[in-house]
């Protein structure tokens, strides 16, 4: 029972202003779509029905993920008084996300203005079994009266994007048609630019003949049916709501036909049947992804929340889509895909669900033509992946934003944050290194690595004076500094990218000359070119401090005003130091790890002392003004033996959305942070890494209060079950695996526990 | 200053659930349209933009007045936080309807969730000078912050009818087009059945260059523009909102052209100019209509409210429309016109503004073809006016309603409440008697009287046994009893109607044989027919008690279970007596005056004893379950010398909407009650009546606490100013007038006060 509680995220107090946050936290998604945890009985909040891949620009500054018609509208009227939580006395309020089963439970008891008390319990799910389906079961109990209720089922096509920023409100959908499914309703909308058709259908069904006198109607952009109910005091009335969604992305025919058919069979089999299939899927999933932290309930629930929502964001059957920075959980960042996916989220999938990881990379492969277009347009060669990506690989970063005072500011990331291309190439490599999926690498992955290599070789600028290649006018991961030259993260990864390109070309030539030649032909790369790459990568400039192991974030960084963090807030997060009249970009303060990030991504390229020295230097200068920041400092801290901050950074990461510690959870999931949470647990506390010899290695450390940390990973097809306690490390595997623990080699035999006792890793 | 207060209706406390009531109370109307006093900053309530004559059926049970696009939407965002009174702390709240000037003032100070305090003052008016125009002046003051505001101006075409009764929600409008007036916005909608086009346009204009970065857009059925404002703490920012409306009822061309032109000139001249013209019109109006009650502030404000809203409901320039039972103040009774207009409201206009009275009667004349159609369809002859009327005189009473338990009940009034036809004929006569407008009577009025006479002569049934004419299966004014035979009100007025028809036919023949013959020809009435009418009217059965002067409400009424009222509630209104197991229709309890009504309408047909006896009998049996009831008992009480209840019934009438004592003020004005209020004051306390010799007569009585009651009336072109105090009666006139005061004749010379002292009328 106690254990069950560790599967729940709970809200026990209703405050209207918290609705947007809980909409994100209680989003139910299945990778195909996300339904924000919108509360049907409140006017306040931002309903979100986000279907992966449905992008549109219309009057927006740039293309964005479309907020589709809201099918959740479900109004209850006692007599003619609308049940509105914000006008009622809230007698009871509880919402619980059961992460184990992927079900959002709620139980609300309200007293209306007219004194009627009504209880509404509900279970909501978005099916992982059939991604087009979702459902809700309502149980309505009139506590202190008998009489008439009306039940109004609406699909609201009037929805717009950016409701939360009214001046930017954009309408992407035209309503084409309302359908009377009798019973049930459906709507067909079409996006303005690309003509993507979306059909949403819902059917409400009363258990027993309780829904009467149905009326159907189309009200402008809303389709509705309304029913009468005669209710008796104290009796429970159950209504099932069935939802089905299709879009023209799913079919060449009219998606309405698919909807009609699917809704029919859904109704025939019933809600409980789908709910069971859905539960089974989550059971399968949890068996792969769960991380157990014994002795720390908050961490346990927290990490599960991150795993739950990250898993909910992926759909392995559609390789035209990826995971957006805000998941399918909100409109923030316009549903765009960033480096967050490859660098923060991908490792989770690589190690737990490689099928999904492959799909995410295939999305990049499938959008590489857009990346090529970007390169051409910017005067480069090869494939330049966009800093922000939507559905076709072209750059969709908005050019303008506003600062805190509301002044317009030019956004330069789309022009200058080049490192995304090597981040993707790295993702390809990391996937391959872990899975050894040769088919993927030969047919798809290598094309990404080679074409990004080609891009970099055209992007670098030769500096004759120093006989070196430079990459100027860039933004590194730390976005406080724009237009910088030779950002070390960018340069190092560009160098790595080209090197990996050369290495893989050689490999492919050996593996399959035919494919090799075809590919070089396709990419218009000659062997001369590859030789030229060798020269370039060897001469790419990496700024370093001459007297120490300190790496200079970019050329001239050390000459900036050296302001360091002196004070921390009650959560242990840095307070802004006195800027001494400087602008941010004139100081050494950084937003998030940059050099440290590099040392995490390419861990085996740097020795421990270098890591330590740089960690210590940069940690004092990092403001953590990105949710991508704390997790990485946690991992690096554990790597270099600075365990004092690791737990705090970990919890900060894990609770990003649950405690809304970035203040913008309402806009969607901090998806990078969910991936960061997993990395913190597995790469940080678990100390898992792949060494230079591609051997899986562990150097774990767990906080004193943790009794046990355990997780599973998929290493080249073998499922390893790893448990770390204060006394030992246990490894179980489905296959023979060689593993290093604190640099010592072990061989794990199938289904035989390897236990390593009395470790020196504890403090 | 004190006196000024008597011109205000005030709301000083904000409670969301009271919004609908205040929307009605604060409606601003000019007869062309009514704009409900919708509060822009709340989600709760029922906006109403009701344009007289715009009727449509669509999916409604019967044709109804269409709720037109809401042009009042005006959202303010502090940063991106919408100013929503229901989410704010309400620091100050005051709304005041200045009835003298026809301006709704409001001053609201709110603290947002984020702690921003903002004050919004506004003045709203609906012009009486140019009925197409309305306007608002907002003054916005950020009290404790500087920063950014957004101002969102929207016209909402998604509005539907019957929002307050969701199962009956009906959409009447299709949005045809949004217009970018740059600056300003407009919308064109069209009604579903009749294709009436409505265009609404609004322009917001900042005083000083305060509105910036305008964005225009159409969002489905909503047209909007949004502006940015940079505001400074403590500074006032003034924004004027200009509104203009036209419909295809106003023009043969595209109404948009009229709007475009009108909005241009409106903007050129400015808001203040229109406001001044509007104020002037109200000044003119009040000079005619005001009733002064000194010594009783509540009565003074109350009576003015009734005069204000009744005057606001009429538009003398459009004789295709009349005044609905709920005015232009709400959707209640579907914007239909009942006998309320002729019997309750018309006297006010006849005596203060005969031009309007004529227009109201011309509406009946213009819809007489519909009345003829009703008669034909029901198997009768002549003109049968509809119990409920919309735009063409055909019967539009819904056939079905619901009882308190929500069970469907057949509504019989449209089938059986025949007295409306003679009520209208009576209105014609009353207008003529007071104005001597011969032109109207000869060309229009008489046609109504003759064709309703013809109707009645076909409607009566001859009873051979008793050699009498009966009218069976009817509903009288008391709607508790349906399907009754020989309702005395119905029979008596039918008799009167035919008699008046005969009399007027004779008169017309003498006045203008040509018109007379043409008319008889047109109506297919022969002189033989008229002779037959004579026989009919003389034999119409009037049920009476044999042993007393008591009139039996209908045949068999006295045999019903005689339950009388025993207890009264805290407002002095009857409580339901023990029904002793009977159904309502099986008892002598009545909803509202019926016999008493008859004795008021045809006052000179009954002697004082008859009135007294019947008043006393029926008063004990009247439940006042209609807002049409108390006023009539007040007048009759004063007539028969029972002054004890008169004031209470008067105040009940006057405060019907202000105190919402019928519990449904939210659905619209109780317009009959506004007319009843005037009648109570003038016919009741003023004791004004026209005697058998058509001499204007006065028998006033005023309550002890009233220092003076004074009012003006128009009697055959002479404006009489009548003041009644505890000591004397003063009459002033613009012309020579003969007048009786307590049955004694006086001659009033122009502009010379006639003062009659030391009266015996006080108790």
UniProtKB/TrEMBL annotation, chains A, B:
<dbReference type="InterPro" id="IPR005195">
    <property type="entry name" value="Glyco_hydro_65_M"/>
</dbReference>
<keyword id="KW-0328">Glycosyltransferase</keyword>
<dbReference type="GO" id="GO:0030246">
    <property type="term" value="F:carbohydrate binding"/>
</dbReference>
<dbReference type="InterPro" id="IPR011013">
    <property type="entry name" value="Gal_mutarotase_sf_dom"/>
</dbReference>
<feature type="domain" description="Glycoside hydrolase family 65 central catalytic">
    <location>
        <begin position="304"/>
        <end position="679"/>
    </location>
</feature>
<feature type="binding site">
    <location>
        <begin position="339"/>
        <end position="340"/>
    </location>
    <ligand>
        <name>substrate</name>
    </ligand>
</feature>
<dbReference type="GO" id="GO:0005975">
    <property type="term" value="P:carbohydrate metabolic process"/>
</dbReference>
<dbReference type="InterPro" id="IPR017045">
    <property type="entry name" value="Malt_Pase/Glycosyl_Hdrlase"/>
</dbReference>
<protein>
    <submittedName>
        <fullName>Kojibiose phosphorylase</fullName>
    </submittedName>
</protein>
<dbReference type="InterPro" id="IPR005194">
    <property type="entry name" value="Glyco_hydro_65_C"/>
</dbReference>
<dbReference type="InterPro" id="IPR037018">
    <property type="entry name" value="GH65_N"/>
</dbReference>
<dbReference type="InterPro" id="IPR012341">
    <property type="entry name" value="6hp_glycosidase-like_sf"/>
</dbReference>
<feature type="domain" description="Glycoside hydrolase family 65 N-terminal">
    <location>
        <begin position="12"/>
        <end position="249"/>
    </location>
</feature>
<comment type="similarity">
    <text>Belongs to the glycosyl hydrolase 65 family.</text>
</comment>
<dbReference type="Pfam" id="PF03636">
    <property type="entry name" value="Glyco_hydro_65N"/>
</dbReference>
<keyword id="KW-0808">Transferase</keyword>
<dbReference type="GO" id="GO:0016757">
    <property type="term" value="F:glycosyltransferase activity"/>
</dbReference>
<dbReference type="InterPro" id="IPR008928">
    <property type="entry name" value="6-hairpin_glycosidase_sf"/>
</dbReference>
<feature type="active site" description="Proton donor">
    <location>
        <position position="479"/>
    </location>
</feature>
<dbReference type="Pfam" id="PF03633">
    <property type="entry name" value="Glyco_hydro_65C"/>
</dbReference>
<dbReference type="InterPro" id="IPR005196">
    <property type="entry name" value="Glyco_hydro_65_N"/>
</dbReference>
<feature type="domain" description="Glycoside hydrolase family 65 C-terminal">
    <location>
        <begin position="691"/>
        <end position="746"/>
    </location>
</feature>
<dbReference type="Pfam" id="PF03632">
    <property type="entry name" value="Glyco_hydro_65m"/>
</dbReference>
<dbReference type="GO" id="GO:0004553">
    <property type="term" value="F:hydrolase activity, hydrolyzing O-glycosyl compounds"/>
</dbReference>
<feature type="binding site">
    <location>
        <begin position="591"/>
        <end position="592"/>
    </location>
    <ligand>
        <name>substrate</name>
    </ligand>
</feature>
